[in-house]
Amino acid sequence: MDVNRMIGKKTPKREVVRVVKESVIPISKNRIVEELEDLIENEADRSEFAKLCKRVEYVIRAWYMIHFENMMDLYLLFDPVHGASKIKEKKLSPEKVDELEQKFLSYLFQVMRKSNFAIVTDEEFEMAQSGNYLLNLPIVVDESKVDSTLLSKYFENNPCGNLPAFSDKYLIFRRAIGIDTTTEFFYMAKLDLIISRLWSWLLKKIKFEGIFRLICSPKSPTRSATFKRTEEPDEEYMTVERIRLESIDMSLGTLLGKVEIQEPTFDRMIVVYRKASTNGEKDRGIYIKHFKNIPMADMELVLPEKKSPSLTPMDWVQFLVSVVVGLGALFTSMETPGSDMWVAIAIISALVGYCAKIYFSFQQNMETYQNLITQSMYDKQLDSGKGTLLHLCDDVIQQEVKEVILSYFVLLQHGGATKSELDDRCEELIKEKFGLECNFDEEDAIQKLDKLGIVTRDEMDRRTCLSLKKANEIIGPTTEELVLKAKKRSQS
C-alpha cells in the first residue's frame, strides 16, 4: 500500500497574494528625518533642514486642530460609557442628536481617509472567509445585536461606491500590509489533514468521491481586484507569500516536527458600529475599536457582537453523508462475492476516524478560538473610543508631515520635477533608503507644498523648492521657538 499516495504527498506550491500598494508611509517620522539629514553634507543645511521639519509639523498640526477638536467634542456625546449622561445634561432633542451623530461620522470618516484607511469590501471579506490560518471556525455577527440605522442613514446622505453588504450595520477599515508567521507542531491539524486525505482516497477507490465532493466541497476562494493570487509583476502591486499547512509536503519530518505557516496581515484595522437598542431605550453609543496585525484569513476576529461558534449545517451534511456513504460502501463490499474482510475493516476504520475527526477538530478549534479571542482583546486591540480617535489624529499629522518632508527633500536634491517625476523619485528614495514599497501620494504632497508656499511652479507644471533658509523664513518661527527664546531672555 502506497501511504504517500494515500495522504496526498505532493510538492509544495507557492501561493502568492498580490496586494495593491497603499499610500501610507510605514516609516516613523523621526527615522525619516534622521536618515535624510545624514544625506545632507553641509552642516548648516542639516541644521536648517531639521528646523524646517519641526516647523512643517507645527503648521500642519495647526491646520487640523479645529477639525480634531470638533470631532473629539462631538464624540463626548456618543461615548458608550458617558455619552448618554452628556446628552441629558445638554438637554438635546432626539432630532438634534441625530444631526450631531451624522456630523460626527462625517468628521470621523474624513480623518480615516486622511490617515489612509480604506473600507474592507465584500470581495476582500469573502477572500478572508474562504481561507484558514489559525482560526478554523465559521464566525458570524449576531445581527440582532447591531444597529442598522446609524450607518445606513449616513450613506444615504453621503453615497459611497463599493460598500460591503454589511455597511449598514458596521464598517471595517484596514491599512497597510504585514506578515504573520507561526511555528508549531499542529498535531491535531496534521491529523485532521491526514484523515481527510485518507477518506478522500477511500472514496475515490469505491467510486463515491465525485458525489461526496459535489455535496460537501467548500466554496472556492473569491478573487478580487485588491487581492489577486498571481505572480505576474505589476508596479501597482506588492506580493506577499501565503504558506498554509495544506500546501506543505507531508513527509515524516514535517509530521513529527514543527512547521511554519505564514499569512499576510492588515497592519491596522478599525471597526465602527453601534449596538442595537434594548428595553425601548435608544442606544446612542458609537463603538470604535482599533486592532493591529490581524491575519487576512482570520479577519473575522474583529467582527462585533459575534455569535458563539457551532457546527454549521455543512458540517452536519458532511457528517451524515459520510455515515451514509461509509455504510453504503460497507454493505456493497460485503455483498460482493469474494469480498475481503480487510476491506470492510478499512471502511469501518475510515468512517469512525472521519467522524472522530469532525468531533475532535471542532473541540480543538473551539479552544483555539477562545485563545485567539483573548489574544485579540489583550494583544491585538490597540485601543477603543477616545483613545482610537487620538491615535487617528496623530496618524493624520504624521502622514502629512512625512509626505511634505520626503517630497521637499527630493526637490532639494534633484531640482525641479513634474508630478509624475516627483512620485517616482519619492518611491525610489523610500525603497532604496528604507527597503520598503508604497504608492506615494504626490497629489496630496504637492497641495501641501503649495499651501506652505515653499515651492514654485513654472509654465511646464514643474515644482522647484525654495532654499532651506528661504523656506524657514516663509513658514516663520513656531510657538515653541518663541517660548524658548522668551525663556532664554528671562534667564539671562
Structure, explained:
This protein has helices spanning 3-6, 29-38, 43-78, 83-90, 94-114, 122-130, 150-157, 187-205, 209-216, 252-256, 313-335, 341-380, 386-414, 419-434, 442-452, 468-475, 479-491; strands spanning 15-20, 118-119, 170-184, 227-228, 237-242, 259-273, 287-295, 381-384, 455-457, 463-465. The chain is α+β, with helices and mostly antiparallel strands and 492 residues long. It has a 5-stranded antiparallel beta sheet. β9 (455-457) and β10 (463-465) form a beta hairpin. The radius of gyration is 29 Å and the shape is globular. It comes from Rhynchospora pubera. One of its GO terms (molecular function) is aminopeptidase activity. This is Aminopeptidase (DUF3754). Keywords: Aminopeptidase, Hydrolase, Membrane, Protease, Transmembrane, Transmembrane helix.
Largest sheet: 5 strands, antiparallel
Gyration radius, in Å: 29 Å
What is the SS-derived class? Answer: alpha+beta
Q: Which strand order spans the largest sheet, edge to edge or round the barrel?
A: 2-3-6-7-8
Look at the structure and give the mean pLDDT.
Answer: 83
Low-confidence stretches: 1-11, 214-226
Choose one word for the global shape. Answer: globular
- Give the strand tally: 10
Count of alpha and pi helical runs:
17
Order of helices and strands: HEHHHHEHHEHHEEHEEHHEHHHEEHH
Task: Output the keywords.
single chain, 492 residues, alpha+beta, five-stranded antiparallel sheet, 17 helices, 10 strands, 54% helix
Summarize the structure.
This protein has 17 helices and ten strands. The chain has helices at residues 3-6, 29-38, 43-78, 83-90, 94-114, 122-130, 150-157, 187-205, 209-216, 252-256, 313-335, 341-380, 386-414, 419-434, 442-452, 468-475, 479-491; strands at 15-20, 118-119, 170-184, 227-228, 237-242, 259-273, 287-295, 381-384, 455-457, 463-465. The strands form three sheets. The protein has a five-stranded antiparallel sheet with strand order 2-3-6-7-8.
